[in-house]
Amino acid sequence: MKNKLYIALFVYTSTSLVYAMGPIQQQEFPIIINDEQVSKYNQEGKKLTADVNQLQKIRYSPELDDKITEIVETVKERLVWLGEFTVKAKDFLPQDKYEDIEKNLLFVNAIFRKEYNRLILEKKSQMALAYAQAHTCSGCSKLTKHIKQCTRCKNRKYCSINCLRDDWQKHKNECDQYIQDHTCCVCTKVVKKINQCSQCKKRKYCSRSCQVQDWPSHKKACLKITIEQ
Ligand SMILES: [Zn+2]
Ligand SMILES: [Zn+2]
Ligand SMILES: [Zn+2]
Ligand SMILES: [Zn+2]
Q1: CA end-to-end span of the chain, whole Å?
Q2: Coil, helix or strand for 156?
Q3: Where are the alpha helices (DSSP H) in 92-181?
Q4: Phi/psi of residue 152, each to 5°?
Q5: What separation in Å is there between the alpha carbon of 140 and the centre of ligand 2?
Q6: In 10 A of CB 104, how many CB atoms?
Q7: CB atoms within 10 A of CB 133
Q8: d(Cα 48, Cα 40) in Å, to the nearest integer?
Q9: Please, are residues 89 and 33 in contact by the beta-carbon 8 Å criterion?
C-alpha cells in the first residue's frame, strides 16, 4: 500500500514536471521577431529580387562561371534565411501578412530554380559543344576521343593518319596561311590567339612580353607605316 502510494506520487510529480516544463521553456526561449528582423527581412528580400533579376539576364559563358556561382550561392543563402524567418513569422504575423510574404518567397524560389536549371543546361550544352568542336575529325567529321592534330599548324584535327593524308592536298594552302597569320614575329611561336600591334596592325605577337621586347626596333617602322596609311 505504501509502495503504491509512492509510485502514484512519483507519477503525479513527474507528469506535473513535464507539464510545468512546457510553458517554462517557452517563456525562457521565446521566438522574438522584432522590428530589426523585419527590416532585415525586407532588405534581404530586395537583394534577393535583385540577384534573381541579374541571374535572369545572364547567358552562361565559361568566363562568367565564377560570377554565376557566386550569385547562385548568395541567392541560396538568402532563400534559406528568408525561409527560416517566414516559418518563425507564421506565429507572429497576422494571417494575411504572413500569406503575403510566403507567397513572395515561393515565387522567387520558383524563379530561382528555373534560372538555375537554365544556366546548368546552358553550361552542359556549351561543354558538349566545346567537346564536339575539339574532337571532330576535319576530314571525315567523325567524333573521336583520341584526336590527332596537323603537326604544322595544330589547327586541324584528324581521327587517323589516313584522314590527315587524304586531307593534305586540300589543307596545304590553308595550313601555310594559318601559320603565316599566327606566328609571333619575335619568338616565331605559332599560337591560336595572336595579338597585333594596335597601331600599324602589321606585326603579330604571341604575348605582351614579345611585343614589349620588339617595340624599340619596331617603333620607327611602325610610325612610318601608320603615317603612310
Ligand atoms: Zn577522320
Ligand atoms: Zn595544318
Ligand atoms: Zn612570341
Ligand atoms: Zn606597329
Answers
A1: 119
A2: coil
A3: 95-134, 161-181
A4: -80, -65
A5: 16
A6: 15
A7: 9
A8: 12
A9: yes
**From the CA of 152, which ligand is nearest?**
2
The ligand minimizing its distance to the Cα of 180 is 2
Give the number of whichever ligand sits closest to the CA of residue 184: 3
Distance, in Å, from the CA atom of 87 to the CA atom of 92, rounded to the nearest integer, reads: 10
Predicted confidence (pLDDT) per residue in 162-218, tens digit:
999 999 999 999 999 999 999 999 999 999 999 999 999 889 999 999 999 999 999
Is pTM beyond 0.85? Reply is no
Residue 142 CA: which ligand is closest?
Answer: 1
CB neighbours (10 Å) of residue 119? 20
- 82 class by beta-carbon count within 10 Å (0-12 exposed, 13-18 middle, 19+ buried): buried
What distance in angstroms lies between residue 154's CA and the mean position of ligand 4's atoms? 27
In the numeric block, the cell 540577384 is attached to: 51
Distances in Å between the Cα of 97 and the Cα atoms of 42, 100, 178 are 13, 5, 67
- Minimum-distance ligand to the CA of 198? 4
Cβ 177 vs Cβ 156: under 8 Å: no
Number of CB atoms found within 10 A of residue 158's CB: 23
Condensed to tens digits (0 to 9), the pLDDT of residues 105-114 reads 999 999 999 9
The Å distance, Cα 146 to ligand 1 centre, comes to 11
Ligand 2 center to residue 92 CA distance, Å?
Answer: 73
DSSP 199: T
C-alpha 174: how far from its chain's center? 37
